[in-house]
Design brief:
By secondary structure, this protein is of the alpha/beta class. The chain has two domains: 223 residues, Spore Coat Polysaccharide Biosynthesis Protein SpsA, Chain A (Alpha-Beta Complex); 209 residues, Hexapeptide repeat proteins (UDP N-Acetylglucosamine Acyltransferase, domain 1). It is 19% helix and 29% strand. The chain is built from ten helices and 39 strands. The protein has a 16-stranded parallel β-sheet that branches. Strands 14-17-20-23-26-28-30-33-36 form a nine-stranded parallel β-sheet, with no helix packed on it. A seven-stranded mixed β-sheet has the order 5-4-1-6-10-7-11. Strand 8 and strand 9 form a beta hairpin. The radius of gyration is 32 Å and the shape is elongated. Bound molecules: uridine-diphosphate-N-acetylglucosamine and calcium ion (CA). The site of calcium ion has 4 residues, from loops.
């Protein structure tokens, strides 16, 4: 890996243009907020840029849904500049002039809709620009189908003379297959000196940043290109078709990396794993698993087919059977969950616990070795170690206005089909008879029965028959 050094005398600033709506997305959501691989397009670009300069030297130009974009990226520590009206890529960069013109050094410009950019390519671009002392270096590539991209016009010496946008190109220029990737590295002083000369003299009435190339040439400053071979890395997202193409590339990369790191993935083409998800070695992911958000799965786990896990922490040797839904939950080592379980926000399963089919947990802690194997709802509950929760048990945590807590102390046995009306406490080691409705606290070591006495009437059927027939 090339190491780039940026010090105060030789700074690198990065501007990321992310103010456009992205009309071709046909969306209410600003384009750069659309997600691929579990991250917004803009975040992908910022993370790549962070490999050439610290976030304090990165400025994101925002416009459409500026507050949402700011909220999305603020945790990364970048700066923001508002482009109130989106009058083109040249205009977007111009809005940064006041804030950045005194900085000197190099200025890299990236577009917020190119999420596959690799840090190595950006580092090479900086190196190239440093070595050659041109006014700017831009990344080009050769595309079999260049439709939609700006075409790069190069002279005999290999210098870039101008960039012509698709809409403005002559038939001859449309035949050029070398395109502008939208990734540039400028000598900052020259860029700021001449950027004001960009005019909206085109059909779209926009200030095209690409015009800066011919302007620099006009003033006697060379612009060079860095040709990168056709690679998805340069893909700019304009439509939802592009979005799915890039999403698939990122998902495939993630699955491949996990496999290389020791995770078995059955039918890797069917799984969906977000960029930040971690999975420990010797874990097995069955087909169609979905691991998203900040999920961490430990070692030697098995995640069953069709299971979805969102922003949850799973320990080691945990088995989650098929079609289980887990969101914002914690599962400790050696637990068994599913099939068909639902763990919601705040579910916290202790070591060696069992949660079976059609059991729903919300904001509930299960102590080590506790079991709820079938058909239960446990909400706002503190459940002790080795408690057995029978099939059909319900904690009635909601009275229509407020939520109340249920406490079940260690070793208690909750008979099937029990209804625990919160707030209520079942003491240590107690038994609740099956079918009970428990409305009052049960002291430790007791048996509680909250149901009608069974009545049996021997010979009742025969007597009834005789009454009816009159025999
Ligand atoms: C642009 C280039 C084209 C290049 C292509 C590569 C120009 C004029 N054209 O075209 O040469 O081949 O990218 O993908 O630059 N933006 C703003 N403010 C604006 C307008 C755009 O911030 O006023 C942002 C957008 O949010 C987007 C980026 O700039 O992230 C690029 O804009 P887009 O409209 O997608 O440019 P292209 O038509 O793809
Ligand atoms: Ca684009």
């Amino acid at each position: 890996m090339i190491h780039i050094t940026a010090d105060d005398n030789n700074p690198i600033h990065v501007v990321i243009l992310a103010a456009g709506l992205g009309t071709r997305m046909k969306s209410k959501l600003a384009k750069v907020l659309h997600r691929v691989g579990g991250m917004s397009l803009a975040e992908h670009v910022v993370r790549a840029a962070c490999h050439v300069t610290p976030p304090s030297h990165i400025t994101v130009v925002i416009g459409h849904q500026s507050e949402e974009v700011r909220t999305e990226l603020a945790p990364l520590g970048t700066n923001f500049i508002l482009q109130e009206q989106q009058q083109g890529t040249g205009h977007a960069l111009l809005t940064c002039r006041e804030a950045l013109h005194a900085a000197g050094g190099l200025l890299m410009v990236l577009y917020g809709d190119t999420p596959l950019l690799s840090p190595a390519t950006l580092q090479r671009l900086v190196e190239r620009q440093r070595r050659h002392q041109a006014a700017a270096t831009l990344i080009t590539t050769h595309l079999d189908d260049p439709t939609g991209y700006g075409r790069v016009i190069v002279d005999d010496q290999g210098h870039v003379r101008s960039i012509v946008e698709q809409k403005a190109a002559t038939p001859h220029q449309l035949g050029i297959h070398t395109i502008n990737s939208g990734i540039y590295c400028f000598e900052a002083g020259l860029l700021w000196k001449y950027i004001g000369e960009i005019r909206p003299d085109n059909q779209a009435n926009e200030y095209y940043l690409t015009d800066i190339v011919s302007i620099l040439n006009r003033h006697g400053h060379a612009v060079q290109s860095m040709e990168v071979k056709d690679s998805p890395e340069l893909l700019g997202i304009n439509t939802r078709v592009d979005l799915s193409t890039v999403d698939k590339i990122i998902r495939d990369r993630k699955a491949r990396q996990l496999m290389l790191d020791g995770v078995t993935i059955e039918k890797p083409e069917t799984v969906t794993i977000d960029a930040h998800v971690k999975v420990g070695p010797d874990s097995i992911l069955e087909p169609f698993t979905r691991l998203v958000g900040a999920t961490v799965v430990g070692e030697d786990c098995r995640i069953g087919a069709g299971t979805m896990i969102e922003s949850s922490r799973i320990g080691d040797r945990v088995h989650v059977a098929a079609l289980t839904h887990i969101s914002h939950a914690v599962i400790h080592d050696d637990a068994r969950v599913g099939p068909f379980s639902r763990l919601r926000q705040g579910a916290d399963l202790g070591p060696g616990t069992h949660v079976g089919n059609f059991v729903e947990l919300k904001n509930t802690h299960l102590g080590a070795g506790a079991k709820a194997n079938h058909l239960a709802y446990l909400g706002d509950a503190q459940i002790g170690e080795r408690v057995n929760v029978g099939a059909g048990t319900i904690t009635c945590n909601y009275d229509g206005v407020n939520k109340h807590r249920t406490t079940i102390e260690g070793g208690a046995f909750i008979g099937s089909n029990s209804t625990l009306v919160a707030p209520v406490t079942v003491g240590e080691g107690s038994y609740i008879g099956a079918g009970s409705v428990i409305t009052e606290d049960v002291p430790a070591g007791s048996l509680a029965l909250g149901r009608a006495h069974q009545v049996v009437k021997p010979g009742w059927v025969e007597r009834k028959k005789q009454e009816q027939t009159g025999d």
